[in-house]
Amino acid sequence: MISAAAREIRDGELVFVGMRLPLLAFNLAKSIWAPNAIGIFEAGLLRENVCLEYIHTMCDLPLQTGASWLTGLLEVMSCLQRGEVDLGIIGGAQVDSSGNVNSTLVKTVEGARRLPGSGGACDIAVLSKRLVVVMPLEARRVRRRVDYITSPCGAEEVTLVTDKALFKKGRGDERLRVVGIYKGVEPGDVLREAGEMVSKEELEEVEEVKPPTEEELRVLRRLDKEGFWTRRRG
């Protein structure tokens, strides 16, 4: 999932990087095929070089060390409002077939459950030229319609990166469509979790997503030394 998200980053792009897995995806891309990509972070940071130290959040000191711009929230969000951001990468609790993201509340049998919220994800989703959403493929998270629209999709192109398949929505498309399945994942696995968004006929024609290369794995292990994000044990 991290590798697939990282591959959406092109060299030379200005990338607004969200929390958690997007942090690792950006550093992976910048370490290999996108050395000239520039990362911008909601905490008020802009980086032109790779952060080689282990980080949990965008506020960690290693991310600040060596940054090209240490500023504030208003300044970095203004880059979005001026139309300068090529790609935004965010996570969330739910995403729907239109690319809208929910980070605010979900409906359960016990009633509505309030979530922490989105931070700047609304601005990122609306004002980035392209958007990548990263989250596991689960029926409760990938929906025909989200329980609450926190971040309405305004990007021209959207990619949903999950742990089983890739979905894309291009210019003029009305909804996300599955475009690739990971090696070892059966179409039935995707249909079971994303049945509201895909059909059996669609899944019969999709290609296999190339697995991470040895170089990508080597870089990921260096960037995530403790296995915090990649869930390594022992």
Automatic annotation (TrEMBL):
GO MF assignments: CoA-transferase activity
Record keywords: Transferase
Highest taxon in the source lineage: Archaea
Organism: Caldiarchaeum subterraneum
Keyword Lyase: no
Pfam families tied to this protein: CoA_trans (PF01144)
Family matches, as InterPro entries: CoA_trans_fam_I, NagB/RpiA_transferase-like
Protein name: CoA transferase
Keyword Transferase set for record: yes
